[in-house]
Amino acid sequence: MLKAMIVDDERATREKLMEYVDWSSLRIEAAGEAKDGAEGLRLFGVLRPDIVLMDVRMPRMNGIECAAEIRKLDPNCKIIFLSGYTDKHYLKSAIQMQAIDYIEKPIDLGELHDVLTKTAALCEEERGKLELAAVRVKQELALTMASDRADLPAIKKRFESIGFSVSLNDVFRCVLLEFGGRPIFEGEGGADVVQADRITDIVNREFENASLPCVSGMLDGSRLIVHICGGAAEQTARIKAAIEGVQQTFGCADAGGNGMVTAGIGKSVRGAENIRKSFELARGALQLGFIRGFGSINAEETERTAEEFAGIEDIRQNLKRCYQEENLAAAIREIDGWIAQLAERPGKFRISSVKAALLSVMLHLSALAEESALPISGEWKKQELLWAERLNRGTLRDAAAFIKELLQTLFRQTGQKGISRKIRAAIEYIREHYGEDLSVVAIADRLEMGSTYLSTLFKKETGQALSEFIEAYRMEKAKELLKDDRLKMSEVAGSVGYRNANYFATVFKRSTGLYPSEYRRMFAR
């Protein structure tokens, strides 16, 4: 709430303003009153009001003189002059003092209310700008403090610029917060800057409400760094409570009810030159959220050397054996046992090596699907880069569930009995290359088989001639393309492997009973 002070040598005027102005509706506190400029100046030093209503002519020190002294103490204070005189000299002085307004006595309460409304709005606007500027300075300061080449004199200067009393020899502690493992904003746009300011301000307030003086700033789109300063940096329980407050404030939870704000707490260190050590420990602690799950609060008090995960080849070989033996249950047990081992000792292995091992297993299953010429193998190949991104935005539990989904799909498609691996490979090749010049000889060469043997085996296992299968598959793809009337007929023909549009039309008519143009008229969108 804003504060106002009244300075007037007329008691009746002071009482009238204190009693009859609707201060509460203006969200202003009438904090005090003084009977002359000298007394008003002393009271100003105590109250530090945002607004001063002041008579011009008073004994000992008049309003203009008092305003000049107030301006030295607080250039942003809003001054409203009150006077029963319309002396041009006083009006000119009021303008020089940058007064908000000049109200003549007897005071019209309606006029005064309008002036105070305008003044309060101006105060709130300026206060908001100052608070925002302080937040952004703190954000820059937070990033500077975590730098491996921190400029200590610059850090000291920035602390002073925001009125933050701290010694560079004090105790500091770094906390990293990650929001859901995925960006909450992206890019460099103005809207994203506002979002970063809002998030940083919320976190600052939660920590300060827990008596944890701090500066904070966004590291990137999903992570925020908090530096706790002073003796409170050693209060681990209080820090965890503040983090829980942040989790509750953002209200982020996954389907299982787990908090989606994950935290890493570094060790408290003495001296600003050691802040980087606390930051590194906080970063390592935050990575443990991959093992323990989103919403976990992880603290690292000591530096440790995590091992590289070295058992991945055994896991791949065991999964391959389970696949060859068609034992899905054993494959699932292999994954569950491995994940349980990782979860029991979250700090034993480097998180980067754990993620690399998980991705290696996913790629191994993709390779098995390709070797077996399963229909899903082509789609999996296209998704492998997305799998790596998925790992970086999920948890160990998410990765385990996804690997088991891949296993189930792999075993289910392999379970299609009656079709040999060679014929599955031929079918997959046709599905990937139907838009090219395909022939039985070319497919047989690809599979290192004789063309006559391939044709015979394909007919035996599928009940359909290989050339008929190619034609039927192309016609199904052509039907999909014909529904898009933006494509020329020649483009449709070329897309499904026919260089001659007339010949394509003949084949389509033979297959469907309609010419392509007739089919398009029926199904075009």
TrEMBL record:
Question: What keywords is this UniProt entry annotated with?
Answer: Cytoplasm, DNA-binding, Phosphoprotein, Transcription, Transcription regulation, Two-component regulatory system
Q: Classify the main location.
A: cytoplasm
All residue ranges annotated as the Response regulatory domain in the record: 3-120
Compartments, record wording: Cytoplasm
Listed name of the protein? Response regulator
SMART domains attached to this UniProt entry:
HTH_ARAC, REC
Residue numbers carrying 4-aspartylphosphate = 55
A matching Pfam family: Response_reg
PANTHER family recorded for this chain?
Answer: HISTIDINE KINASE-RELATED, TRANSCRIPTIONAL REGULATORY PROTEIN HPTR
Outline the extent of the HTH araC/xylS-type domain: 424-522
Keyword Kinase tagged: no
Alphabetical list of Gene3D superfamilies matching this protein: 3.40.50.2300, Homeodomain-like
